[in-house]
Design goal:
CATH class of the largest domain: Alpha Beta
Number of strands: 9
Distance between the termini: 13 Å
Helix content: under 10%
Largest sheet: 5 strands, antiparallel
Strand content: 35-45%
CATH architecture of the largest domain: Roll
Organism: Marinomonas rhizomae
InterPro entries: PPIase_dom_sf (IPR046357), PPIase_FKBP_dom (IPR001179)
Keywords: Isomerase, Rotamase
Mean pLDDT: 94
Radius of gyration: 19 Å
Family: Belongs to the FKBP-type PPIase family.
Number of domains: 2
Protein name: Peptidyl-prolyl cis-trans isomerase
Shape: elongated
């Protein structure tokens, strides 16, 4: 297989960085990662950027929030009674909550008051443009 299609298994090195150049995630110093196109390993916007790339090709893509982790949504910020927390809290701490369906939902402690705690349920990278840098190592037909 010479180029990436919607039927590909792709092996690649990747790096995600913020607008200021800070690296969020990278596997360039490790073994490359593999995924099957459409398996949910990568966000759809990241996958579509890889279409028609070939083995050995390197590229960088600036992914706006709507193609990455979405816009920051104010309705995902919740105020909860301080009494609901039985642990020591610190701002920036990630706490696991259960949603209505009992699914795990991580929230970041944004603010701690005497009576209230503000929890941000947005993805930590929501509202951020990211640079997605890739090097394609191998392309195969997905089984």
């Amino acid at each position: 297989m010479s180029v990436i299609t919607a039927e590909s298994r792709v092996t690649l090195h990747f790096e995600l960085s913020l607008e200021d150049g800070q690296i969020v995630d990278s596997n360039f110093s490790q073994a490359p990662a593999s995924f099957v196109f459409g398996d949910g390993s990568l966000l759809p916007g990241f996958e579509s950027a890889l279409l028609n790339m070939s083995v050995g090709q390197e590229a960088s893509f600036v992914m706006p929030p709507e193609k990455a982790f979405g816009a920051h949504n104010e309705s995902n910020i919740q105020r909860m009674p301080r009494s609901q927390f039985s642990m020591d809290l610190e701002e920036g701490m990630v706490v696991s909550f259960a949603d209505m369906s009992k699914n795990e939902l991580p929230g970041v402690i944004a603010e701690i008051g005497d009576k209230e705690v503000v929890v941000d349920f947005n993805h930590p990278l929501a509202g951020r443009s990211l640079t997605f840098r890739v090097h394609i190592v191998a392309i195969e037909v997905a089984a």
